[in-house]
């Protein structure tokens, strides 16, 4: 894969420029800014000679189209010079499962952060276990202590920075340096920060995964996943995708690229509003704790400051000990915070969660009911007023 075209070879462009220009090839699109949605399976070869030699930029729909190429090039430029390739898959979970299947084999051992996305655990405990791959979960705050968990057959470590419900912030560069000394690859579910705010490949991560369903899509209208890999891991990922026959639908590829072009302005707004909401919630008597890595009160704040250039719109709070009916009164009163899974779209969301029944390396006992918020692009004043009504209903139901 080559670099982008429409930035005219200019090096050291700001990421805000890269995200708008990378992967554009207006000349081959007869002047149009965006690539067409190429729906295609068969690619015709002009001569028998070309057919025998598999000559031509595109071979078969599953292996890539002008639409997938544009998105891959844009993502590669955004991930930075360490990125050797980007795989496009039909969901965030498919990105995780495809990446794990691509780098592991029977008899291998895998280390996974105890704060990882729950379906990631289900995949490890279900399919990977059936294929003879053992998973050990580790405390995301283990730091250098992870060394003791390595076995002679530990092949990979999966981190999520921060955990997308509980927001523990692992020390990714430290874990990566220990993993590499042991010959293991490091996978990072980088969905929360995106490559805009966390260049994980530059922090020692070998495989950086995005649930592009979230901020890249940005409009709650697609399921999509991306796998970005460095030189060490890309041959495995590329082979895995080829062998598994994984590919994404052309409309979703187009919408992911369309979403990516505005991700920088959307994320900046999500960041600003979420921080304002988080700071406001810290002052509320109903709230025991706010779990947001960009707040100085967060235990992972120093790592966030060192490794990240921004924060997105997702954070959690712990309410003071209260009965379920009080929490439900809050949830049923708010109007601007929809109740639903996923996040990363333009709209605000709230969801109650409890990690206590599936954690295995750590204990989840935060001291009260937990709520996760996604702060969307609505006015912060409206969101505060809405939540204020919710908190009043909470208090009334205590
Ligand atoms: C949503 C999410 C996923 C899964 O993405 P889907 O596109 O829903 O399959 C993976 N990891 C994290 C952190 C997520 O939030």
Task: Chart the SSEs and their pairings.
Elements: H1 15-21, H2 48-52, H3 66-79, E1 85-89, H4 92-103, E2 109-113, H5 118-130, E3 134-138, E4 154-160, H6 172-181, E5 185-189, H7 194-197, E6 207-211, E7 225-229, H8 234-244, H9 250-261, H10 263-282, E8 287-291, H11 301-307, E9 314-319, H12 324-333, E10 338-339, E11 349-353, E12 370-374, H13 380-396
Parallel strand pairs: 2-3, 2-4, 4-5, 5-6, 10-11
Antiparallel strand pairs: 1-7, 6-7, 8-9, 9-12, 11-12
Helix pairs in contact: 1-3, 3-9, 4-5, 4-8, 12-13
Bound molecules: pyridoxal-5'-phosphate.
Task: Summarize, please.
It holds the Pfam family Cys_Met_Meta_PP. The chain is an alpha/beta fold. Helices cover 36% and strands 15% of the residues.
